[in-house]
Amino acid sequence: MANQVRLGIVGCGVIGSGVLRVLADRKGAWEGVQLAATHIAVRHLERPRPEYVPRHLLTDDWRIVCEADDVDIVIEVMGGIDVAHDVVRHALENGKSVVTANKALMALYGEELRDLASKRGLFLRHEASVLGGIPVLHTLHTYFELNRVQSLRGIVNGTCNYILTRMWETGAPFAEALQEAQALGYAEPDPAADVEGFDAYYKLQILLQALRVDTHLLQTEFVADGQPFVGAANSGKPLATLTKPRRGIDSVDAAQIEAARRAGAKVKHVASAVWGEDGIVHCTVGPQVLQPDDPLYFVDGVNNAIAITGDVVGTITLIGPGAGALPTASAVLEDVLQIVRESADKG
Ligand SMILES: NC(=O)C1=CN([C@@H]2O[C@H](COP(=O)(O)OP(=O)(O)OC[C@H]3O[C@@H](n4cnc5c(N)ncnc54)[C@H](OP(=O)(O)O)[C@@H]3O)[C@@H](O)[C@H]2O)C=CC1
Ligand SMILES: N[C@@H](CC=O)C(=O)O
Q1: Distance 344 CA to ligand 2 centre (A)
Q2: Which GO biological process categories is it annotated with (predicted)?
Q3: Active site residue 203
Q4: pLDDT tens for residues 28-54?
């Protein structure tokens, strides 16, 4: 791949605009690599956009982005499942490597799409799909070879953490805190995915897949195209199961938060996975009351954190911004630059 790298971007909302803002601020240049957007797909061509979005590149046909000769890498930041699945498949089938921030897509179809990319000798990267700006997939892929991971435990949804923090700190009503999270660009296009715990559940699955855990039983809870989604079994891998039903923060009320606050505790939305001796990875996703001696207690606002326990290293905790335009654009563009470097290394 040449040092001039041409990007096709599908979606120009919070994250797509964030990517374009970073490209504009840096004038597209990174140590010998020049990145430039050449096509940008949106749904509403007439919608007002920030000044750093080059309007002449806009199209309302994502196929143009996936097929264009002057696109080297496609960035999928439109969200949703079915069309996004078509976009990523179509891009790969047209010889483009792909970077996506889409958790639902990667939780449900990650294995299929990674296989397709690998068969075509292309890259499919999705660091931004988990924990926003925190390089957790990079860490899991490049570090945990020696160590056997024994558990994961984290705050993996920025919107829920922001809402719970605002309710705890200021007594803000749930609806008001959610509106703030939406205005700040943290929430999903349909915020039910955040507050009902689906987003955290998708992210937990992606983390487990990165650690070669079979998540197909978790996937049966999801619905794609109106049908229950049943993934293929992968024998030989540890199998993840939910030990109790997934919960979001929609069931947490102000009185519970106030009671926790008076007792010096906090309510947090926590995802966890514990590798059992029985070959089962026992998972939970839901609100928990945390005491100040819990390392997740001090993770507030839009921040996320993940504590990864390995049998040799002990517990490593990564903390950072879990949502928002710039942290997520950072993860997207770090993936792009890694693809460029690895393509150059391959020759
Ligand atoms: N917000 C965040 O903090 C984070 C988001 N993500 C993920 O990034 C993705 C994008 O999120 P976000 O930017 O917040 O979402 P937005 O709703 O802000 O943006 C979605 C964009 O996709 C475009 N779009 C929707 N459907 C189509 C279509 N059929 N063809 C072309 N364009 C389409 C929309 O067009 P138009 O503008 O015309 O409506 C819009 O520009 C999601 O997968 C989300 O989960 C990941 C990490 C953090
Ligand atoms: N809606 C998500 C965005 C990032 O993944 C969140 O709030 O964590």
Answers
A1: 32
A2: methionine biosynthetic process; threonine biosynthetic process
A3: yes
A4: 999 999 999 999 999 999 999 999 999
**What is the C-alpha separation between 319 and 45, in angstroms, rounded?**
37
What angle separates helix 103-119 from helix 82-93, to the nearest 10 degrees?
A: 20
Q: What is the DSSP letter of 122?
A: -
SS3 content of the chain, % helix, strand, coil (to 5): 40, 25, 35
Q: List the catalytic residue out of 203, 244, 268, 346.
A: 203
Whether 323 lines ligand 2, by a CB cut-off of 6 Å, is: yes
Q: Kindly give the parts of the chain with pLDDT less than 50.
A: 1-2, 223-232
Secondary structure E strands in 173-313? 223-224, 227-228, 239-242, 266-275, 280-290, 303-310
What's at 237, amino acid-wise?
K
> Is residue 202 lining ligand 1, measured as CB closer than 6 Å?
no
16 a known binding residue? yes
269 and 160 Cβ atoms separated by less than 8 Å: yes
Identify the pLDDT of residue 346. Answer: 81
- Do 12 and 50 contact (CB within 8 A), yes or no? no
- Residue 3's Cβ-side half-sphere holds a number of Cα atoms within 13 Å equal to 6
Q: Is 188 annotated as a binding residue?
A: yes
Helix (H, G, I), strand (E, B) or coil at 184: coil
Assess: ipTM above 0.85: yes
**Ligand 1 atom nearest to CA at 105:** 43
In the chain, the amino acid numbered 281 is V
The count of residues in the chain is 347
Set out the domains of the chain in order of their start, with CATH numbers: 3-132+326-346 (3.40.50.720), 136-322 (3.30.360.10)
Ligand 2: nearest atom to the Cα of 129: 5
Residue 16, judged by CB atoms within 10 A of its CB (0-12, 13-18, 19+), counts as buried
76, 10 in Cβ contact below 8 A? yes
308 has which bridge partners?
A: 152, 316
